[in-house]
Specification:
The protein has 363 residues and is of the alpha/beta class. It is built from 11 helices and 14 strands.
């Protein structure tokens, strides 16, 4: 069984305490790899490496940084099939979604910020009396980047790319639920020419590894995507340390259909609502998790939405015909099931129920 490694200072390293967590394939419920259960000591090593690499990387010309980011994008493209399969197995999402959206956008993230970092602008203001105010943009130091499990590599690269493009170094803490593609990215960093210590990847749980990263005194900036409760915790502990924070948190997005909406067709409101609700098993921060429909068209929308839901091909995420794969973890499945149970208790009608038998263990 494969053991995933941390990536610190340009090297694959085991967790200092030697502890590992099970990495479960959602579609089968079987353990298929082991992920480091890192702690504060591993975070300390990664932060020390990032802090040591920061002065030289910050002084690297933007054009040189851009060349390295573009090379990393090329390597992701060259390893597309490997990343796509790993993403599908690790998350349970349909492989067609990983192939069409998730992994290609990872490469796009690096190319976008490679171009952006070579184009800089600054504000300049005449304050009168011979006084001029201007803004200089400078890298801040070590950035702590904590990414979620629903779009693991896509959202992690969305954090890494601007951090290192602008001259910062970083310590990444991917979700321990979906660690494989972050581990694979670490394998490409040296090949792309990223200097040791510029990008470090430490796997582990939120409380142990994530908490140590958030509260580390040598990490002045934190970017987090995840739950609102964890975001509150981060703000509470990082705020008094005057860290720069970027918090992308949970929400309940309303999808509103008015009575004059175009309902039918693949670009109509019903089809769009179905995609918004069920793409990636609904595990997207911008999914349409609430549907508000004008009373006069409610029955028509309900019928159309149920028909589309029932027509979804639920199956093995690695099957190209699958449209709806597996929920990413057992705790998340329990959470979703608890809301269905609550809906029944409140008198709701269940209009569609899809069953699926998991595939055989992978070779």
């Amino acid at each position: 069984m494969e053991k995933i490694s941390n990536f610190i200072n340009g090297r694959a390293v085991a967790p200092r305490a030697g502890r590992y967590l099970d990495n479960v394939e959602p579609a089968t419920g079987l353990i298929y790899s082991r992920v480091p259960d890192s702690g504060p000591e591993d975070i300390n090593d990664a932060v020390a490496a990032a802090a040591s690499a920061f002065p030289a990387w910050a002084a690297t010309p933007a054009a040189d940084r851009a060349r390295i980011l573009n090379r990393l994008a090329d390597l992701i493209d060259a390893n597309l099939d490997r990343f796509v399969r790993a993403e599908s197995i690790d998350t349970g999402k349909p492989i067609t979604l990983a192939r069409a959206v998730d992994i290609p956008r990872c490469a796009t993230n690096f190319r976008f910020f490679a171009a952006a970092c070579t184009q800089s602008a600054s504000e300049f203001h005449d304050a009168e009396g011979g006084v001029f105010s201007y803004t200089l943009r400078r890298p801040r130091g070590v950035a702590g980047l904590i990414s979620p499990w629903n779009l693991p590599l896509y959202l992690l690269t969305w954090k890494i790319a601007p951090a290192i493009a602008s001259g910062n170094t970083c310590v990444c803490k991917p979700s321990e639920v979906t660690p494989m593609t972050a581990f694979m990215l670490g394998e490409l960093l040296n090949e792309a020419g990223v200097p040791p210590g510029v990008v470090n990847v430490v796997h582990g749980s939120g409380p142990a590894a994530g908490g140590a990263l958030v509260t580390h005194p040598d990490v002045p900036a934190i970017s987090f995507t995840g739950s609102t409760n964890v975001g509150r915790w981060i703000a509470h502990h990082a705020g008094p340390m005057l860290k720069r924070l970027s918090l992308e948190l949970g929400g309940k997005n309303p999808f509103v259909i008015f009575d004059d909406a175009e309902l039918d067709g693949e670009q109509g409101a019903i089809a769009t609502a179905a995609r918004a609700a069920f793409t990636n098993q609904g595990q997207i921060c911008l999914c349409g998790s609430r549907l508000l429909v004008h009373r006069s068209i409610f029955d028509r929308v309900l019928t159309g939405l149920v028909d589309r839901a029932c027509a979804l091909k639920v199956g093995d995420p690695l099957d190209d015909s699958t449209q709806f794969g597996a929920l990413t973890s057992a705790p998340h499945l329990d959470k979703v099931a608890s809301y269905v149970k609550l809906a029944r208790e409140l008198g709701a009608t269940i209009h569609c129920c899809l069953l699926y038998t998991s595939p055989s263990p992978r070779d």
